[in-house]
Amino acid sequence: MRRILPVALLLLLLGLAPHLACVQARAPDVYINTRPGPPPENIDSARAPTTSTHAEAQAELDKAYRQIRYLEAEVQRWRGKAEREEKRGDEYKRKYKRLKDKYDD
C-alpha cells in the first residue's frame, strides 16, 4: 500500500499537469512565400459559383479559363499599345530637340 500511494499520486499529477498550466500560447500562422512577387491574396469563396455536378463545375472552370485567356490577350494588347506610344513620344522628343537645336543656332 505504501508503494501504490506515491505511484498513484505521481500518475494523478502527470495526468493533470497539462490542465494546470495557467498560460496558453498559440503560435502565429506563418506564410512562407516561395514564389517571386507579392503573396497571393485570399480567395473570396462567396464569389465562387455553386455547382452540383462535375459537368457544371467543369463548364464553370472552362468559362473561367476562357476569361483568363481573354484578359491575358487584353494585357498584351495594351502593353503593345503602350510601347508604341512610348516610341512615338520618344520620336517627338528627338524631333523637338533637333528642331530646337536647329533654330537656336
Mean pLDDT: 81
Assign an overall shape.
Answer: elongated
Query: Share of helix among residues?
Result: 55-70%
DSSP summary: helix tally: 2
Low-confidence stretches are: none
- Order of secondary-structure elements: HH
Measured distance between first and last alpha carbons: 117 Å
Number of strands: 0
- The SS-based structural class is mainly alpha
Q: Describe the main β-sheet briefly.
A: none
Gyration radius, in Å: 34 Å
What would your notes on this structure say?
- This protein has helices at 4-20, 54-104.
- The chain is an all-alpha fold and 105 residues long.
- The chain has a domain at 50-105.
Q: Keywords, please?
A:
single chain; 105 residues; mainly alpha
Short description:
This protein is mainly α and 105 residues long. It has 2 helices and no strands.
List the helices and strands and how they pair.
Blueprint (H helix, E strand, L loop, with lengths): L3 H17 L33 H51 L1
